[in-house]
Amino acid sequence: MNNTPEITIKNVSMVYNDKGRDVTALSNVSLEIQKGEFISLLGPSGCGKTTLLRIIADLLQPTSGTVEVCGKSPREVRLEKKYGIVFQSPVLYDWRTVRKNICLPLELMKIDKAEQNNRVDALLEMIGLEKFQNHYPNQLSGGMQQRVGIARALAIQPEILLMDEPFSALDEFTREKLNEDLLRIWRKTNKTVIFVTHSIAESVFLSDRVCVLSPHPGRLSAVVDIDLPRPRTKEMRESPEFFNLVTKIRNSFEGV
Amino acid sequence: MKKNKATAALLWTAGVVLLWEGVAFFLANILHDKMANAKLPYLHSIIYTIAANFSEISNAALITVSKAATGFALGAAAGIMLAVIMSISKTAEKIAFPYLIISQMIPVLGLAPIIFNLVRNMDLSRIIIAAYLTFFPVAANMLGGLKSVEPEKRELMYSYAAKKRSVYIKLMLPFSLPYLMTGLKIAAPLSITASILVDMLGSKGGIGVKLLYSLYGGEKDIFWASVLVCAAIGMLSCFIIILAEKILIPWKKTSSGGEE
Ligand SMILES: Nc1ncnc2c1ncn2[C@@H]1O[C@H](COP(=O)(O)OP(=O)(O)OP(=O)(O)O)[C@@H](O)[C@H]1O
Ligand SMILES: [Mg+2]
Question: Strand A219-225 and strand A38-42: pairing?
Answer without folding.
Answer: unpaired
